[in-house]
């Protein structure tokens, strides 16, 4: 069984009725392991609703779930990782021609150190954090390819064969899965299953390819330095595809300690973002998380070097013109004023990058 993993600090427990990945040895912090085929192939409304309630319970309690048997073939994910690695192996000058320029677009190549994710919304504070301890990663940001205003920035086909084709296909695949997860959330909140369909159909998402190069341990010893600093995501959901290296840590909402959320073969990590928390009046939880370096390989008596790491994140958003206000069944009084998706997302992105 692919989930029968054992380590001193990590135990995956799979009760017959419901699976959990128990992080560390703290039983109060359990990320639900959801068999999504029970929703996709449900033979009864009761079976579908049970899976939906398990998903919503995970977002209420932890803010994270593992989604297994989600319908995306392993070969599709493997191809996306292969094409991502080929892109990041291109010469720096070639990648820099595709540089990210505008938060309204949110497309293009982001070099190491340009982004500093944080919970702060103060531009001067973020600039100081970036100068002191930038995130040690590079990324490539891809949006919907038919946008009437903002265009994706693609490498030449000769430089990265089938990169564009592969990423556009993967983008659509992730969107399709996201629609089904949103349907599950709707059912779990006692809404009509298709409640969100017309609010997410414009595919205003962001596919982010991430590369964490090897780094010497002495460079990670700066105060606050991480491969990606502690943050919550901006949108509704994030679908995270991890390689085998790991490094993702999730903050235990109860103890505030960061604990590993290791990759589970064949599964996708999905977390709720700030906009979904706001939309649900904080019924659904947007949880802090970060990426830390895995154990380093010793290269001298005083120095080590971490392995490289890859991941792919698909940041899901409602339509940019959607007005995000308190959902039905999520409290009698709204905690937040209505805001459009575009206003919220662009505002957060604008202070994140230089």
TrEMBL record:
The residues covered by the Fe2OG dioxygenase domain are: 203-318
Q: Name one GO molecular function term.
A: metal ion binding
- Known Pfam families for this protein? 2OG-FeII_Oxy, DIOX_N
Domain of life from the UniProt record: Eukaryota
Q: Which UniProt keywords apply?
A: Iron, Metal-binding, Oxidoreductase
* Family, as annotated: Belongs to the iron/ascorbate-dependent oxidoreductase family.
The name of this protein is Fe2OG dioxygenase domain-containing protein
Instruction: Name the source organism.
Output: Phlebiopsis gigantea (strain 11061_1 CR5-6) (White-rot fungus)
């Amino acid at each position: 069984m692919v989930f029968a993993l054992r380590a001193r600090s990590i135990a995956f427990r799979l009760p017959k009725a419901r699976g959990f990945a128990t992080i560390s040895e703290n039983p109060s912090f359990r990320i639900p392991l959801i068999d999504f085929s029970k929703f996709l192939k449900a033979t009864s409304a009761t079976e579908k609703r049970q899976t939906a309630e398990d998903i919503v319970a995970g977002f209420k309690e932890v803010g994270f779930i593992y989604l297994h048997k989600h319908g995306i073939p392993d070969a599709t994910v493997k191809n996306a990782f292969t094409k991502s690695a080929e892109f990041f192996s291109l010469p720096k000058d070639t990648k820099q021609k595709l540089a990210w320029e505008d938060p309204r677009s949110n497309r293009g190549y982001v070099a190491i150190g340009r982004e500093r994710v944080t919970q702060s919304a103060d531009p001067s504070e973020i600039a100081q954090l970036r100068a002191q301890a930038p995130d040690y990663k590079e990324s490539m940001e891809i949006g919907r390819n038919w946008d009437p205003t903002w265009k994706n920035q693609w490498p030449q086909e000769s430089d990265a064969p089938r990169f564009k084709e592969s990423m556009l296909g993967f983008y659509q695949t992730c969107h399709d899965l996201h629609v089904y997860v949103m349907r599950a959330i709707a059912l779990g909140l006692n809404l009509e299953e298709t409640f969100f369909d017309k609010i997410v159909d414009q595919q205003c998402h962001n596919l982010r390819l991430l590369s964490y190069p090897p780094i010497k341990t002495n460079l990670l010893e700066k105060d606050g330095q991480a491969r990606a600093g502690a943050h919550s995501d901006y949108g509704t959901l994030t679908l995270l595809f991890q390689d085998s290296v790991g490094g993702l840590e999730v903050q235990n909402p109860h103890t505030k300690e960061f604990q590993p959320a290791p990759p589970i073969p064949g599964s996708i990590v999905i977390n709720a973002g700030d906009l979904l928390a706001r939309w649900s009046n904080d019924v659904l939880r947007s949880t802090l998380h970060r990426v830390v370096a895995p154990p380093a390989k010793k290269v001298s008596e005083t120095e080590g070097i971490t392995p490289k790491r890859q991941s792919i994140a698909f940041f899901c958003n409602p339509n940019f013109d959607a007005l995000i206000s308190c959902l039905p069944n999520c409290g009698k009084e709204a905690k937040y004023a209505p805001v459009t998706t575009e206003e919220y997302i662009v505002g957060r992105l604008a202070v994140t990058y230089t």
